[in-house]
Structure formats: structure tokens, C-alpha cells
Amino acid sequence: MTEPTPPAPPFRDPSLPLAKRVDDLLSRLTLEEKTAFLHQFAPAVERLGVAAFRTGQEALHGVAWMGPATVFPQAVGLGATWNPDLVRRVGEAVSQEARAMRARDERVGLNVWAPVVNLLRHPLWGRNEEGYSEDPKLTSAIATAYTRGLRGGHPVYWRTAPVLKHWLAHNNETNRDTTSSSVRPRVLHEYDLRAFRETVEAGAVAGVMPAYNLVNGRPNHVSPYLREHLRTWTDEELLVCSDAGAPSNLVDSEHYFATHEEATAAALRAGVDSFTDHGTDSSTIVGRVRRALERGLLTEADVDAAVRRQLSVRFRLGEFDAHDDPGAFDTPEHRALAQEAAEQAVVLLKNDRLLPLAPGATRLAVVGLLADECKLDWYSGTLIRRSTPLEGLRERFGAGHVEFAEGVDRILLKTRAGTFLQVPAAEDAPEEVRGAEGALDPALLAGRTDLPPLTTGAAGTELALADWGEGVLTLRAPDGRYLSVAEDGRLRASADQPGGWVVQETFRLEPHGDGHLLRHTGTGRHVTVAADGVRVAAPDEGDPEVFELVVVERGEEAVARAAARADVVVVVAGNDPHINGRETEDRTTLRLPGHQERLLRAARAANPDTVLALVSSYPYAVDHADLPALLWTAHGGQAAGAALARVLAGDVSPAGRLPQTWYADDADLPGLLDYDVIGGRQTYLYFEGTPLFPFGHGLSYASFAYGGLAARVGETAVHVSFTVTNTGDVTADEVAQLYVRALDPSVPRPRRELVGHRRLTLAPGETAEADFEVPLSAFAFWDVAHGRWRVEPGPYALLAGASSEDVRLRTTVTLDGEPAAPRPVLRRGLAAADFDEQSGVEIVDRTKEAGDAVTPAAGRTGELVFRRCDFGAGVAEVTVTVAGEGTVEVLLDDGPVLAALTPGAPASGPYDYTTLGAPAAARGVHDVRLRLRGPLRLAHVGFSG
Question: What GO molecular functions are on record for this protein (predicted)?
Fold first, then answer.
């Protein structure tokens, strides 16, 4: 007799509510099994039929690091489209490819770590390419669209589970794991939290990843904001995945905790659910959790909370059901979408009637270091196909109409012995790196040791030298292979492109006597010539080789010749995403590298009809006074070249818009670590200077007229509408933008703030209406005096137009709102971080768990201002809660010192607070000024009768 099949456990029953299924599976796991789930690589539980699971699959603009995939434009390029519908379709394609790739490779994960919603506050941030915009409204609109695409359209099951990066206030790579972003409450609520909040509230987010940095003195991986803010925005369980290595940083680099057990327990209690640390080896993290449990730093309930959130994501992905989603990979639709996205991302910055060009009747010179490149970045997938600007233009204009000059310097490197650096010919490469027809495999990777190393000889190899700025250069052999250094220290021509976490294809030429030393940047060591080949010198080795730099041809000479023969010159300039501005490395300047500026000048001098096409991950400050045309696009993925060619030819009218301010000079920039966008007057919201190009800027081959602006104030929103008419003679897109400005604010408010936009496709003569429902909450600001959002009564300007500075229509609405009230200091006192103005201070952690305090920057002197404090009928005493050494001086308005309070004995630690009191008579409403002297922490000021 056959034994009856036991019934499936409740967690396998798709008819049950999700919460019941999660609870059932959780109840069946042992504490040891649950603890093992806390590492990124969660093991299988075979007795329950639960498979292994990995959190984390990079998918910023396509599936990354898992081999060939469709590569879409960089995130900043997707932001430049200002087109949520397009970005949603890109997200759908990426999620389909993730599913299809997982079907053949289980290493491909479905918990995708994308998108990045860090705001592009500072254009020198090395990871500028990863974000969408400096504006929280635009960022959230694009991020919401991408997450909806990644989630997929199934009513129950998610195709992938997107995790937002990087929580919170993260815009610097310089010392990123030890620097603290000082974020005042208004900036926190109105700026940094907002992009995360609106995206989470839209309902397609599975979780977030904390950033490496600290905020207000506390590491993001133990941030109370995860509990106080993030998890209050949705009823869904949100998964918090640590950034790689960040849990260990809490002790190793940040020294925030004394032991890893304390740190791991604090992160888990704060809300981190999955620890990405020590690669695939989970034993270290699991051991820390177990010891924390043994020492009473954690309870099983803490572990359960984290595992429950993990399981919730896995159930939504359909892991425990018979849900089948085969996905789709490299389809014609995905290829077409990649080109559409690249076309929509192109921004026409300037055009003095030179563009569009006439195919068939125009002889082009296409020049520049990026003219024949299709660059990838750290978070790109592997290209299945590619299109460079040169290839795209030759296809569109005809190969016979396009001349190419890369503009690299052609050099020989001569040794002291009179020989020259020599690259072995491609035919000397081993058979396994050759294609079927004997051609060198274009997918050669740096790090190969089976290729012959460089040698020296009487006949040298002519190398292509490209200087990418800051003295960082690449050297390339005639067959296109980049010189690279492998682990054995030898130089080989082995790389298809510069790349890798530590780039091994970059060098510096350092003047030395009558020659140059060649330093390899990846190892920091100089190049030497040895009997067994050319290699980098060992740390204890003697004098390195001194090379004579023999210039065969300057790049600008080749550019000038090509430019002089052409009708129009297209200079393609920009950055290599792996060099001088990337993850781990911030930029130092907005200027183009000197090498590329020389090429641009040479082209312009030889031919006044010169177009500059910037292909870059970030803005530049370029002198365009004598340039008739200027375009920008982010690195556009596999279809970048074809897209640029179609825009230049007029097949597509450009309609990309700048997602961030382009500043005219480095002097316009705030400090990289100044996160106070209000006090520092940063981004288009507050910047009072003249930008090179403003936020939202972008030109078209058509012209557009705006009219009929109407606004009506309702109970919950302001309804705004206006018309846009294509008055040109070509079909084109226009991005209609709506901004708001408080006309009579009681506190500093944005000069103008984006509240809506529409990308409209209009035929010649066609008119469309743009309608917006602007919620009244969009007019609010964070009232630090009362700790909440408030809409201020009074007039507000509504500004409609083509950019933040190109305003075509305006009207005014008057809102009732809530009148300002003085600070109720008798009831609430003054939280030190709730200041209206400050100078010379930074916000720090009040305790390791929660709260803020304020301290003078560098322990010197700082001042806080609190406006309109109501003392009622009068007070007689002031108290301060402080830690550390120094003095707090209390002043009213611009008067003398009312009270000075100094701790008696030095505190035993930064969190050892004491409360001091002193007589202080005040009544009525006054501004309060607090002067802080010395390395103290001020948490709170109180007043009493």
C-alpha cells in the first residue's frame, strides 16, 4: 500500500496571506538556520526544500557583472531623458533579462541593487554617473519608474526585487567610510529623505542599502532613521542590505564600536537584515551574530525580525510557488529600446544654426579620444553589440564622407641603453585568445599571464598615449590592446579597455633628470626593464628605468589636418568612467583634461564649424564662446554612437534636459563635504550665481510656444494647466516644466522648485495641454521651530517653461496655510540641531543609538541662531545639556551675553552629558544666539521660570 503524500506545509500554500506563509516558514527554522540567513549568501535548508539565496544583483542600467546583457545609458543619462515612461520600460527589460539569465545561471540574483537615488548635489562626486538628478522630485519620478519596471506588472509576483541605494546623504568618495555628512533637519526632510520617501511610497521598492558614510556623526548602518522614517512610509516589509564590507567598517575604520559583536548587534537592531561582508564566506558574520546572542547583545526576536523581512522578499519573488517567469534576453525590442533611450538622453546645449547636419552633402572630421569608443562603467554589463560615434556617423553619413583622427599622441619610449619599449606582435598571442579566423579576441582581459610581456629592442613599438587629466595616462599598442600590469608584475598589451576595481591600465610620466620615470598607478610602482621582460619594480628594488619620451606625432596635429579637410568637425570628448572620477575617487575639477582641451582648440582653429559632443558621466565647465554647437550625453550604452549620429543628422530632434546644474567654474562649487544645500546655496534650488547651463536646460531643432496658463486652488491640491505648441517645422519632443516659488517666505526657500514635468511629442503646428495636480504638501517646508511640515500662507509663483531659467509663463496663487508661530521654548526648549542658521558648527550624534547634538567644527568656535523664540511672561533660568569641555554663551537678539555655562570637570566620554543652569531673565519674543567655544557637544537648551 502506497503511503499517502503528506500535505504541503502552509508556507507552500499560495492561497494563504503572505504574512501567514512567512510566519509558518519562520517558525520551522532553527535559530542556527535563521542566523545563517543573515549573511548575503544564505545557505539552503534542504530539510524544508528551501534553496540558497543571495541578496544583491547589480542592475543600474542593465544586468551587470554576469556576462553579456543589454547595456542601456548610464543612470544620469536616463535622468536626462526626463521620461518616466521610457525608464519604466528600461526597468522592465532589465528585469526580463535578469530572469532569463538566471534560468541559465543560478548566480544571477533577483534581489537587484538598483536604482541609486542619491541626489547629485555635487558634480565632482565620483559616482555622479549612478544618480538621476540633483532634484528630489525628478529623482523620485525616474526612480519610481525604474523600480516599477524592475518589479514587473504581475499582480502578485515580483519579477525582481529592487533595493534603493545609498541611504543616506552620500555624495563623496573621499574617505567615504569615515566622513560624516552634517545634515540639518530641513535639509534632511526637504532634500535627502525626499527622493527615498516618494519612491518607497510609490510601492515598488523591496528595500534599501545604507551608505558607507556617517550622517550627523553616526554610521548609516546603525541609523535610527531606518526605524524612524524609512519603515513608516509603507506597510510592506522592507529589506535592508548592508553595503559591501560596511559592517566591519563599524570597528575597523570608523572605530565606532569596540568589538565586532557590538557593531553587528547594533546594526541588526537598527534594521540591517542582510550583511554583505567577507565575500562568499559567511562564517565571520555568522560567528559574530552567535557571540552577540550569547552575550545578550541580541535576542532571537531581533534575528526573527530580519529573517522575516528577507523571507517576505523571497515569497514576493515567487520562490516558494510554481511561478514561472522565463524572462526575455537581447530581444529586438530590447535593442530598439536601448537606442531609443540613448537618443532621448542626448542634450543639445548650444546651437548657432549649425545643426542638424546634412547627410550625403557634408564631409565630417570625427576626432577626439572618445570618437571611436563605447565606454563601459563599473556597473555595466558586457556588451553584446556596440556602436561608437565614429561607427554611427559613418553608417549614417557614409564612410567616404567621414574622416577620423583620434588625437592621441604617438610616442616611443627609449631606454637608457638606447633601445625602445617593444610590444610583441599580436600573432605571438597564444591560440586560445584568438578567434576562429585568427584575429585577436576583442574580449582580452587585463591580468592574463599567458601573453608575452613587453620587451625592448632596436625597433620600438609606437604607442598611443592618451592623457585623461591629473597626469593619468593610458598607453595602447597599434592593435588596440592597452598596456596593463598583471599580478606577476609584468607589463603586457592585454586589456581591451581600462577597467577593474583597481585599474591596472593607467600610468604617470614623472620628469626625472633629462627623461621620465613611468609609474604604474595600480601598484604605485615604477616600470623597470629586466632581462626577463618589462615589469614594475619590486618595493626594495634599485633605480627604475629612465625613459626618453620620443614624440612621433602630437594628437592635435592629426586633428588639425583632418579638421582642415572637412566641412564640419565633430569633436567627441569626455571621460573614461574608470579613470579620474568613479567609485572610490572624486574628481578635483570641472575642467576638461588638458589633452582634450588642446584637441578642441586645434579643431576649432582649423575649422570654425566645430561641434563639441561631450560624452561623460558628469558635467564639465567648458569655454563654448566660439563653438557654434555643443551637445552632451552620458555614456549611452550599446547604441550610443548610432543615437548620437541620428541626432546630429536631424533624424531625431534632441530633447534631453540637464538633470543637474552645470556650473561655470570650480569657484562656484561648495565644499565636497558641505551637505547644507540651504546654507551653502547649492543646486539650482538655491544657487544665486550664473550657471554655465541651468537645471532643465536643453534645446531642440523645433521651437515651442507656451500659453493659456491657468491655476485653481482646491482642497488638497492646486490644479495647473497650460498649452505647448510646436511652432517649428519638424516633429519633436518638448519637456514642459512647472516650478513653484514662495514669494513672501519667513525662512529661506528655494529660488524655484520643480513640482511637475511632461515630455510631449508634437508634430509641427500641434498643440498639447499639460495638466498638473500639485498637492498642497508640495508647497510645504520643514518647520524646525515645531518639528513638522507646514504650508505657509501667502502668495506662491507658478512658473512654466522650458528650463529652470527659461520661464515662459507665470501666475500667482494664494494659499491659506498655517501662519508662523514663535518657537514655544517654555514647552519644548531648543534642540541644538533645530537651528535656523549656523556658522562654524557640525551636527554629531547625541548617543550611538539616536538623537543629534551640535559641536564647533574642529573643536573651535561656532554659533547657532534660533529665530522668534517665545519666552511668554518671562523666564529666570537657562539650562544646557552638554558633554565635553568648553563654554556655551547665551545671547538674545544682538545683545550682550545673557549667560555663560561651562562644565566643571571634563566629561569621561563624548556621550557623558551633564545639565548646567544659570540665571537668565527674558520675556516676550527674541532671537536666541548660542556661541559654542571649545570641543563640546550641545544637545539641548531649556528655559524655566
Answer: hydrolase activity
Catalytic residue among 243, 273, 467, 852: 243
**Integer Cα distance of 61 and 380 in angstroms:** 7
Q: Which domain holds residue 274?
A: 1-54+241-323
CA distances from 688 to 50, 338, 577, 838 (A): 58, 37, 31, 19
Please state the separation of Cα 758 from the chain's center in Å.
24
State the average pLDDT over residues 571-579: 98
d(CA 366, CA 77) in angstroms, rounded, equals 22
Same structural domain, 726 and 637: no
Query: Do 139 and 683 meet the contact criterion of CB atoms below 8 Å apart?
Result: no
> Residues 306, 385: one domain?
no
Length of the chain: 945
* Residue-wise pLDDT tens digits, 597-639: 999 999 999 999 999 999 999 999 999 999 999 999 999 999 9
- Separation between Cα atoms, residue 219 and residue 849, nearest integer Å: 10
Question: In CATH, what number is assigned to the domain containing residue 752?
Answer: 2.60.40.10
Backbone angles phi, psi at 507, to 5 degrees: -140, 170
Domain count, the chain: 5
pLDDT in tens, 223-249: 999 999 999 999 999 999 999 999 999
Given 524, 546, 568, which residue is the final one in a domain? 546
Q: How many CB atoms lie within 10 A of CB 388?
A: 22
d(CA 58, CA 772): 35
Same domain, 766 and 864: no
* Phi, psi dihedral angles at 182 (to 5 degrees): -85, 110
Q: What is the DSSP letter of 747?
A: S
609 is catalytic: no
Its pTM stands at: 0.96
Residues 385 and 429 in one domain: no
Residue 620 resides in a domain:
yes
Helical segments of 503-629, H only: 555-564, 594-606
